[in-house]
Design a protein that fits this description.
This protein is α+β, with helices and mostly antiparallel strands. The chain is about 40% helix and about 20% strand. The strands form three sheets. A six-stranded mixed β-sheet has the order 5-4-6-3-1-13. A four-stranded antiparallel β-sheet has the order 10-11-9-12. It has a three-stranded antiparallel β-sheet with strand order 2-7-8, with helices on one face. The longest helix is centred in the C-terminal third of the chain and has 25 residues. It is globular and about 65 Å long.
Length: about 400
């Protein structure tokens, strides 16, 4: 694939010097959903699939971006002093936002560049294709222009792009997992302190399977920001008696004692999910480290039920796909992953029964929804990095 990408780049942008290749993975969150912006813990891992960028500096101020996944958009062209959000620029607003954020933080990008993007992450599936594009752009700018920015700082800058430029009020989990991923490890991340623990995830007789509902959704247009606002309301009302700065500081007992401070029953349920999911995540990591995969899987199920009933971010398609998985004997655990409202499920499946799992779950899902689910077995990979360079 590498030679083909270089060939496509030079066909598109012509000869003119050295091109370099960069990669940023997608991510899947094993447990700990909608806890990141509530100051809780998450447990994601970087994937072996992600976003590739072939790029080359120019001698002028022009930036030309092209995506092999969005060929209908054509080449998006703008200059270094035209870094504004333009709806028609579609996917290119993500790299454009990263360039702008770098410049606003005083990083010197003296010239434009040509860049071709290619991703093997399913679009709008909840595997963080947007964070993958952002970090691929960040590592490209950092290396190509010799900026010497630490990875953690690039992660924070890319979260700001999502919040300020794109308009999705997300937490830091996606960018963190994409930037800081480690092969064969998941990351237990405290989203309030950014303290992390790499937890080995070496599956011998099991495999991670991502199932895509193929119900597309856009975070900026979904109820994602509404859920965050509801949690902010819950926190504010709890702070009338409690000295806390996030819902992640509460355990189940204290929450049950003080939940009456939250006036709305609906917002109470939103906060309950954030608190209970955070504690579930810590328990789940402990079970995984002790080798109790079945216990881990049971907590994945509890997580999905909470996301369905208390946080209400699943929907018919995700519930159908997860419930079909639960009925399979080979399924150790299954839940929605990502923001919800469509997207993907993550499944822990016995390797020897993988084919029958995919066949049975796929059939049940199509019968109930009329949609065809896509299934991907995934490996756990490293974070964003330069892959290679080539002279021309």
């Amino acid at each position: 694939m590498s030679e083909q990408l270089y060939s496509d780049f030079f066909d598109l942008f012509g000869d003119g010097g050295k091109a370099r290749k960069f990669f940023a993975p997608g991510r899947v969150n094993l447990i700990g959903e909608h806890t990141d912006y509530n100051g809780g813990h998450v447990f994601p891992c970087a994937l072996s699939v992600g976003t590739y960028v072939i790029a080359r500096k120019r001698s002028d101020q022009l930036i030309r971006l092209y995506s092999k996944n969005k060929e209908g958009t054509g080449t998006v062209t703008f200059s270094l002093n035209e870094l504004t959000y333009i709806k028609d620029h579609s996917w290119a607003n993500y790299p454009k936002g990263v360039i702008r954020e770098f410049k606003e933080h005083g990083e010197e990008i003296p010239t434009g560049f040509d860049a071709m993007f290619y991703g093997d992450i399913p679009n709008s599936a909840g595997l963080s294709s947007s964070a993958s594009i952002e970090l691929a752009t960040a590592i490209m700018l950092n290396n190509m222009f010799g900026l010497d920015i630490e990875m953690i700082d690039m992660v924070k800058l890319c979260q700001q792009v999502e919040n300020k430029f794109i308009g999705v009020n997300c937490g830091i989990m996606d960018q963190y997992a994409v930037g800081m991923g480690k092969k064969d490890h998941a990351i237990l991340l405290n989203c309030q302190t950014l303290k992390k623990i790499y937890s080995p995830l070496l599956l011998e007789n099991e495999v991670l399977v991502i199932a895509n509902t193929n119900k597309s959704r856009g975070l900026a247009d979904s109820k994602y920001n509404q859920r965050r606002a509801e949690c902010d309301t819950a926190l504010k009302e709890l702070q009338s008696e409690l000295k806390i700065t996030s819902l992640g500081e509460l355990d189940e007992r204290l929450f049950e004692e003080k939940k009456h401070l939250i006036k709305s029953e609906v917002i109470q349920r939103r906060a309950k999910h954030a608190v209970y999911e955070n504690r579930r995540t810590l328990k789940a990591v402990g079970l995984l480290e002790s080798g109790d995969l079945r216990g881990f899987g049971a907590l994945m199920k509890q997580s999905h039920i909470s996301l369905r009933d208390d946080y209400e971010v699943t929907g018919f398609e995700l519930d159908t796909l997860v419930e079909a998985a639960w009925r399979e004997e080979s399924c150790i655990g299954a839940r929605m992953t990502g923001a919800g409202f469509g997207g993907c499920t993550v499944n822990l499946v016995t390797k020897e029964k993988l084919n029958s799992f995919i066949e049975h779950v796929g059939q049940e899902y199509k019968k109930a929804t009329g949609l065809t689910a896509d299934f991907y077995t995934v490996d756990i990979g490293d974070g964003a990095r330069e892959v290679s360079e080539q002279a021309m």
